[in-house]
Amino acid sequence: MTLSNARHGVERRLERIIDLPAPVQGQFGPAHTVVPVIQPEDYALSDPFILLMDDRIDGQPIGGPHPHAGFETVTLVVKGGMSHDSGRLGERDVQWMTAGSGVIHGEGLDRPGEARILQLWLTLPKARRWVPASYQDISYAELPVRREPGVEVRLYSGSSGEVRSPTQNYVPVTLAEFLLEPGATVEHDLPHADNGFLYVLEGELAVGPEARALRPGQVGWLDRPGSGGDSTLRLTGTTRARALLYAGPPQREPLVSYGPFIGDTQADLMRVMDEYRAGRYTHPPRR
To answer: 62-71, 196-205, 206-215, 275-284 — which is least confidently predicted?
Structure first.
């Protein structure tokens, strides 16, 4: 049952809690393992989020420059640091890259060692699928912060309370980090129609009117009560906790994919592969 909140309308709850598998061998050599959090085949349920991989590295991964087209990548460094074509990301920093019309980019660790990186693939609206490529580096130290008793909400994108992020979006996505002390509670407003999920990095949360427990190793998907108006998500720290909220409006357009390319049709995929082979892709400029 979805309950009402007098100030903010419908209160969101956890509809699905998925227990994630243990890390498996990744594609970038023996130093790389990965936990698949969202898979492309589940896009009908996860729209606008195509894929989320929780990459774990212990040593020196093997990789190099590679292409993307037709979507955005949102790369969050949970632990360690990484370099990319035009700079570096420190711990808890984010790169928001619009692959759009096509890019070649490379990324790697500052030095061999331990790291943990979350990479999200985010759809673009059909009308903006092939926009010029670009990127934004988002520094954790410069994030807008909402503070409540025992709570800090840091915004990579979107808004919380009266605080708003300056990050530019094609799809209006919320990406927020919640830090809660034991027993502290915060309410966060979301549009009714937003699809979203919580990913706990440390500790344990109680979520929604039923206070369902969510902890590391799980992904918690919010219910989708309908369109129009606002809704509220209530989080309480069962222990000291750190969690990420990803939320955004479904685009409701079918996608096709092949490797690092996303399109609306198979003809799109053939075209972008031909453009890549013809050497038309370059490193993305700063947005």
So the answer is: 62-71
Distance between CA atoms of residues 221 and 198, nearest Å:
7
Handedness of CA 124, 126, 128, 131 (dihedral sign): positive
Residue showing tokens 């632990």: 79
Which of left, alpha, beta for 101 (phi over 0: left; psi -120 to 50: alpha)? Answer: alpha
Q: What is the pLDDT of residues 194-206, one digit of tens each?
A: 999 999 999 999 9
Domains of the chain: 4-277 (2.60.120.10)
Exposed e or buried b for every residue in 99-125, given b needs 16+ CB within 10 A?
bbbbbbbebbbeeeeebbbbbbbbbbe
| β-bridge pairing 145-148 and 151-157 | antiparallel
Against a cut of 0.85, is the pTM above it?
A: yes
Q: How far is CA 62 from CA 11, 13, 35, 90, in A?
A: 45, 41, 18, 20
More confidently predicted of 3 and 158 = 158
Q: Taking 50 as the threshold, does the pLDDT of residue 35 lie above it?
A: yes
